[in-house]
Amino acid sequence: MSDDRYRYSFETVAEQYERARPLYADAAVDWLAERLGLGPGSRVLDLAAGTGKLTRQLLERGFDVVAVEPGDEMRGVLERVVPGVEALRGVAEAIPLRDASVDAVTVGQAFHWFDAPAALAEIRRVLRPGGGFALLWNRWDEDDPLLGTVDELLARVRPQAAQEASWREACGVPLEERTFRQRRPLTADALVEWAGSTSGFVNAPRTEQERIAGEIRRLAAAHEGEVVIATELSVGQLSDGSSGIRATSS
Questions:
Q1: What single string gives the DSSP state of each residue in 4-56?
Q2: What is the pTM of this model?
């Protein structure tokens, strides 16, 4: 499990997180729904839901969504911006739902913070037979000339859990993976705000925060203002009668 200083640092920037963070690529959400066999009325758990970025996209597709989020500040924003959603306090390692109660579990921008074996055991417990899970991240696209450089700046303060792909090994299961890219306008102010909502930035010394923000503004001034954001998606399916996860075939 990662250092809670980073894991729960988003509580201090919940409103900023909601303003700054983009939604996931619609094509990615459509693809996970297809791969997991979801349709209107499917019961979906959005785990570590944050301010509900993914929650609202799942609801738009007619799913019956329950959002579980440990942070009171993040969950409070979620309940305000996604009114009427079922939102519960809880962690991935102790999900507050009954056994075999959901058709799918989604995790946006958070699985690397989990104690993976404990979280996977809980995901298996709450999934119905044949149910599956989807893990999503919005990343700075390394091929984008601006975001690639911004990513290098933030890598200096980024915690190890958010730097490495070791969560894949921790899963111990095969995953089907795809990347979906979206272009969107992004001002210098919005880019600084997004950077400022990351765990490494939040925990960095003030002088380092100011240095990074200033460098981002300098870089953005020479950029046209449109960037490419990559939504990375990993999908696994729970086989009937099996204790493991198998990847669906393309």
A1: HHHHTGGGGGHHHHHHHPPPPPHHHHHHHHHHTT--TT-EEEEET-TTTHHHH
A2: 0.87
